[in-house]
């Protein structure tokens, strides 16, 4: 028996699905690949992530862990930003932009040498609606990015400092919320 499409996507993995879509992993299980890679990153560089997360290390590690047969994510396993922003950007070597109301920020990788061309840097933008649902947001070319996440300067390795070059960071108002009409395209990956 086939499950209705909406049941596939009402599983608490919308945040991971947004990242998967931004990476070009648009199949139904792309969110699994994202969670697995985040888990591998946090385990593989435990010394770094223990410092970044402090007492939240174990809860974040447990949140991203995805057993093979798991279909849905409990509330404790949802993607949370800004908490996991540095982890996402570092695990996938991307620029992650959070445009959620009250917490707009940009996350850059902590330990990779940036590509030489700004055009080769992948930017994934997303927003959280009413603190319950993540949607991808399409940014305009050369759009200013929200302020750089403050902890980046504290944990970034010297080889990764060039990630900040060539971008304009500034405080910006939230762009897409459930209560206001979006001014740029929003892609809701959980709507059939």
Please characterize this protein's 3D structure.
The chain has 192 residues and is α+β, with helices and mostly antiparallel strands. The protein has a single domain, classed as Alpha-Beta Complex (Cathepsin B, Chain A). Helix content is 30%, strand content 11%. The protein has seven helices and five strands; from the N terminus they run H-H-H-H-H-H-E-E-E-E-H-E. It has helices at residues 5-9, 14-22, 30-44, 46-53, 57-64, 85-92, 152-155; strands at 95-98, 105-107, 123-129, 133-137, 186-187. Strand 3 (123-129) and strand 4 (133-137) form a beta hairpin. Helix 2 crosses helix 3 (30-44) and helix 3 (30-44) crosses helix 6. The longest helix has 15 residues, at 30-44. The two termini are 18 Å apart. The relative contact order is 0.17.
Short description:
The protein is an alpha+beta fold.
Total of domains: 1
Please write the CATH class name: Alpha Beta
Broad shape: globular
How much β-strand is present in the residues?
5-15%
Overall pLDDT level: 79
Class of secondary structure makeup: alpha+beta
Number of helices: 7
CATH topology: Cathepsin B, Chain A
Number of DSSP-assigned strands: 5
- Helical fraction equals 25-40%
Radius of gyration: 16 Å
Residue windows where pLDDT falls under 50 for at least 5 positions:
1-8, 174-192
Cross-sheet strand order for the largest sheet: 2-1-3-4-5
- The SSE string, one letter per element, is HHHHHHEEEEHE
Tell me the span between the first and last alpha carbons: 18 Å
CATH architecture: Alpha-Beta Complex
Oligomer: single chain
Main sheet specs: 5 strands, mixed
